[in-house]
User: Which sequence fits this backbone?
């Protein structure tokens, strides 16, 4: 049998299972066969993967497309992702009228994106909760996000007046009626933050650590308890997104039980690779804040033993000009999608000895399982032929100028990571090779919207 593509003689990483030497054959955009060492076959294209890992392409579960340059983000950010082994993303779509605006945003993505993408719906009003079962079925979106960060004065400053504990509980009730429904929650107790913020701010502090001190980790942990407890009472799985504090993970460990709805945990690469002491100043402002090295170490152990299920980037393509003039006025968030594999391979595999199949599961299989992404996240016949090919002994030095992102900086700027993505493949199509987009990718974007049946 002749194939369209063969990834030849590599170390095939099966997420959560193990690593086996062999080749992967692709036909019609799907994985057609796993070939044993020495087994030969013909293909229109062969990529030699000797001494390299063949991984499922990363699916970034946490991005904010449109927060940089609106619809142009679909062009710049998906190409940036494609250059570094990311073949899919989930992004938050927030609008006063989800039913009316979702088709236009989906169509913009399909016209511009070079990788596959799906949506989480952002909940900021009761109408979103009431409409969720209908729009979930209509647009194939089975996940919600509730922003506890936008309660009270913080929310009113952004025009949100309905974010409270009642909205959270109603969102959990609504998602419980949707097959595969899960509610992600930004956990920070904004009602207590001013107790810490005012003395820290009035002392004249401008360092990055001040942002952590004005919203300490236990304010995340307190909200984590509330979300997990409400999820149990509403009968709905929850997902603690961008977990930053080690104490929050320890609480989840204590609360998990086999007879209650799942408490899923997502962290982001910046909580693993950066800290409040990283020396990047205002560039490192993010919500929740960067924490201590101890917090990072605890989260890494959660990745190792599976207590942390998924890892994303919380990518926001804002300009450097928004990151100032001081820590108090700087915008929160930064880009990071292109650093997923460099961080995980260098900091997770090489530095901490976490098996690559464990790291791969957190960026592929587990994401696909949590969000009902059919045909994604595994290396097996019949699954989409989405791959990141990584040289574990290569080297990646972060320079924001290497990417087409709308953002003109990186919090990882100048950092060198051990490990390098050499190829990205989406449904059998070569997206990038050795850090450059493949020919034809720009002219014919092939990203598809991920409709999730419910």
Assistant:
């Amino acid at each position: 049998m002749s194939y369209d593509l063969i990834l030849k003689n590599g170390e095939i990483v099966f997420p959560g299972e193990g690593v086996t030497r062999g080749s992967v054959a692709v036909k019609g955009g799907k994985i057609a066969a796993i070939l044993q060492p020495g087994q030969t076959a013909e293909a229109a294209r062969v990529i030699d993967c000797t001494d390299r890992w063949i991984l499922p392409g990363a699916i970034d579960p946490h991005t904010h497309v449109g927060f940089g340059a609106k619809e142009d983000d679909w062009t710049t950010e998906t190409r940036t992702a494609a250059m570094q082994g990311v073949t899919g993303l989930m992004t938050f779509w927030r609008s006063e009228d989800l039913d009316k605006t979702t088709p236009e945003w989906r169509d913009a993505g399909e016209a511009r994106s070079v990788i596959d993408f799906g949506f989480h719906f952002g909940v900021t009003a009761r109408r979103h909760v009431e409409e969720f079962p209908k729009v979930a079925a209509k647009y194939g979106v089975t996940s919600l996000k509730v922003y506890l960060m936008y309660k009270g004065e913080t929310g009113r400053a952004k025009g949100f007046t309905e974010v409270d504990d009642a909205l959270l509980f109603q969102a959990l009730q609504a998602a419980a009626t949707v097959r595969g429904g899960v509610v992600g929650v930004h956990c920070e107790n904004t009602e207590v933050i001013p107790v810490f913020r005012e003395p820290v701010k009035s002392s004249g502090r401008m360092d990055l650590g001040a942002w952590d001190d004005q919203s300490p980790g236990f304010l995340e942990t307190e909200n984590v308890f509330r979300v997990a407890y409400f999820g149990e009472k509403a009968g709905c799985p929850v997902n603690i997104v961008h977990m930053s504090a080690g104490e929050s993970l320890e609480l989840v460990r204590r609360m998990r039980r086999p007879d209650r709805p799942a408490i899923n945990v997502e962290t982001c690469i910046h909580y693993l690779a950066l800290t409040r002491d990283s020396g990047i100043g205002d560039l490192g402002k993010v919500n929740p804040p960067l924490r201590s090295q101890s917090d990072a170490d605890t989260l890494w152990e959660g990745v190792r033993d599976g207590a942390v299920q998924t890892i994303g980037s919380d990518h926001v393509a804002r300009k450097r000009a928004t990151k100032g003039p001081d820590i108090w006025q700087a915008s929160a968030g930064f880009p990071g999608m292109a650093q997923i594999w460099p961080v995980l391979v260098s900091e997770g595999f090489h530095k901490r000895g976490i098996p690559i199949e464990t790291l791969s599961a957190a960026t592929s299989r587990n994401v696909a399982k949590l969000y009902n992404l059919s045909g994604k996240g595994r290396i097996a016949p019949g699954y989409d032929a989405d791959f990141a090919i990584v040289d574990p002994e290569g080297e990646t030095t972060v320079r924001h100028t290497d990417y087409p992102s709308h953002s003109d900086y990186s919090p990882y700027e100048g950092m060198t990571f051990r490990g390098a993505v050499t190829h990205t493949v989406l449904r059998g199509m070569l997206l990038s090779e050795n850090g450059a987009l493949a020919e034809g990718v720009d002219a014919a974007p092939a990203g598809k919207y991920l409709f999730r049946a419910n």
